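REVIEWER CHECKLIST
Item 1: Sequence provided? yes
Item 2: Single chain? yes
Item 3: Sequence as submitted:
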Amino acid sequence: MFKTLKMRKITVVIALSLTLCLTACKKDASQTDDSLQEESQILGRVLNGSDASRVKIEVFSDLECPACRELFVTILQPVMRDYQDKVSVVYYEFPLSGHRYARRAAQYVAAASRLGQRQTLSVYEAIFTDQAYWAADGRLEDSVSRALSNEDFMRTIQILNNTNSLNEINEAIEKELQLGMRKGVTATPTVFISYDGRQQKVEGRPTYQVMKQFLDPLVK
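Item 4: Structure as written out by the authors:
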């Protein structure tokens, strides 16, 4: 009972601190739509943790979205650093039509994901860090080349230049978009936090301190 009351108090704190929508799902994980669960496991890129992690943070993100950059840099990078395998962070691409280079950026991270988790995370970090530059002229290659070794960069370019591989990547991005829409994503970033058979939806960007207050009781 004490733990339940404590969790409710933390949830209220999050909602008040963010002035955002933080809504507990009405269904337990066991009651969640099976097709959405299956697709979530197939799609996306795991940047931290694993299926064994007690807490899972799923992010639907547009790489050209400034709020998505802030979420990644100020909250999720510290989460991955401080919680490591205790928290799994999974990214799904949700490029918005109003962002000219968002889909191309999504293609780069999807291509890098074929090389490994380390390379994928490095490309995410570079693309978000340099967002203001490539969003102005679309020169994503400069950022990606600095994030990868010469060999890995050339492999990434080869993947993108291969028609079959690019078609597969575009299909995966479209599936992630459709998955997000079925999960009620209407804006970026949108975050889903799963823990103890529950899932909460967060639209917008909390502070790291608020996220830490929420996560600490769950992983200790």
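Item 5: Key structural point noted by reviewer: The domain at 25-189 is CATH 3.40.30.10 (Glutaredoxin).
Item 6: Recommendation: ____
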